Amino acid sequence: MTPGASYQAGTVWNKGNLDLNQSFDFQFKINLGCINGGAGADGLAFALQTTDAGVGAYGMDLGLKGIQPSLAVTVDTYQNTQYGDPAYDHLAFQANGDMNHLDAANNLAGPVQALANSSSIKDCNWHILEIIWVASDSTLSAYIDGSLRLTMQKDIVDRIFSGNSLVYWGFSAGTGGSYNIQQFCTVLQANPYINPAQAFCENHYIAIQDSSPNPGWMQSYYWSFGDGTTSTAQNPGSHLYQPGTYQLIEAVQDSAGCTDTSKTNLVIGTYPVPKFTVSSSCDSAFIPIQNQSTDSVGTISTWNWTLSNGTTYTDSIPNLGFLAPGTYNLSLSAISAQNCPSLSTYQASFSVYPIPTVAFQADTVCAGTAFSLTGEATNPVPISQWYWKVDSLPLDSGQTVQYNISQGGNYNTYLWATTPTGCSSDTVNQVIEIQQSHAYAGDDTLVALGYSIQLQATGGATYLWSPAATLSNPDIADPVATPTDSTTYTVIAYTPIGCASSATVVVKVFKGPAIYVPGAFTPNGDGTNDILKAIAPGIRQLQYFRIFDRWGKQVYYSTQLQSGWDGAINGQPVPPGTYVWVIQGITLQGNILTKQGTTILIR
Question: Taking the model in full, what pTM does it have?
Answer without folding.
Answer: 0.56
